Structure formats: structure tokens, C-alpha cells
TrEMBL record:
<dbReference type="GO" id="GO:0002949">
    <property type="term" value="P:tRNA threonylcarbamoyladenosine modification"/>
</dbReference>
<dbReference type="GO" id="GO:0046872">
    <property type="term" value="F:metal ion binding"/>
</dbReference>
<keyword id="KW-0067">ATP-binding</keyword>
<keyword id="KW-0819">tRNA processing</keyword>
<dbReference type="GO" id="GO:0005524">
    <property type="term" value="F:ATP binding"/>
</dbReference>
<keyword id="KW-0479">Metal-binding</keyword>
<comment type="similarity">
    <text>Belongs to the TsaE family.</text>
</comment>
<dbReference type="InterPro" id="IPR027417">
    <property type="entry name" value="P-loop_NTPase"/>
</dbReference>
<keyword id="KW-0547">Nucleotide-binding</keyword>
<keyword id="KW-0963">Cytoplasm</keyword>
<dbReference type="Pfam" id="PF02367">
    <property type="entry name" value="TsaE"/>
</dbReference>
<keyword id="KW-0460">Magnesium</keyword>
<protein>
    <recommendedName>
        <fullName>tRNA threonylcarbamoyladenosine biosynthesis protein TsaE</fullName>
    </recommendedName>
</protein>
<dbReference type="GO" id="GO:0016740">
    <property type="term" value="F:transferase activity"/>
</dbReference>
<dbReference type="GO" id="GO:0005737">
    <property type="term" value="C:cytoplasm"/>
</dbReference>
<keyword id="KW-0808">Transferase</keyword>
<dbReference type="InterPro" id="IPR003442">
    <property type="entry name" value="T6A_TsaE"/>
</dbReference>
Amino acid sequence: MTELAINSAAAMQKWGQALADTAKPHDLLLLKGDLGAGKTTMTQGLGRALGIKRPVKSPTFTIVREYREGKMPLFHMDFYRLEGDDLASIDLNEYLAEDGIVVIEWPQVIQDDLPENYLGLVLKRVDDSWDSTKRVVQLDPHGPRAGEWAKEAQARYTELMAK
């Protein structure tokens, strides 16, 4: 598992941009991490890089937010509050079949219902200081496309941070 050091909220958004710049239709990104780890911040950078003009917000209470106005659609999901058969109300396969990117926060709840090819990210705080923005992102690609995406995104992130 590869690790990436992120030292600020701006760098986390650049990581999101690197993911967007290297994404292809049907890519699936699974985000794990404690509350406040940077999952939504990263997704905001991804959305901005896709050309989404409206604010990308956490879908904690809505479960799914759709952004269709960018270079390709972004479907941002948060299953933190999902219980029991709540997934039955969401046609996940329909979202995965669209020519967009699916980002799922808290995928642990539905892990058994997901395809085998995805890029998993675990976002962790480096320290417990309330104002610290230092994070470590662990990349856990599953499948050939996810491995390719992870490598391309890391290279793109290095380019973005060098500017």
C-alpha cells in the first residue's frame, strides 16, 4: 500500500485535482477515514478540476449528490448514515454504469455489493492537534485500472505540487 503525505487543505484539494485529471469514465473511488479527515475536501478539489461550478458539499444527509455539469459527471455518495435496507433505494449499478466518476465515503457499509475494480483511499490525520491539516493518504488499488489510476494520479499530484 502506497502512502502520500498531504500537508494542507490546499494540497488535499490538489490531490483531488490529480485524481480528476487522471480519471476515466466508470472509475470508482472509495474513501475511508475518520470524520474531518479530508474526504469532502479532496472531493471538492476533484469536482473543481472536473469543471463543476457549484459547491461540492458533503452528502451525509442526502446520501447522494449528483454533479452533471462538468467534463464528466461526479456522483458523490456518503453511506455513513445508511442503515439496513437503505441501499435498496439507491441504484448503485445505474450510477456505476454512467460515464462518470463515483466517489463513496464510508463504503464499509456496502463493501460486499461493490465491484472488484476500485481505488480505495484511507485518509488519516497525522496528529491530533485540532488545527492540523497534515494527513496521510493510503492508496489501495483493486484491479488493473485502479492501479493505473493510482500511479497516474500520484505523478500528476507531484507535477501540481511542483508548480
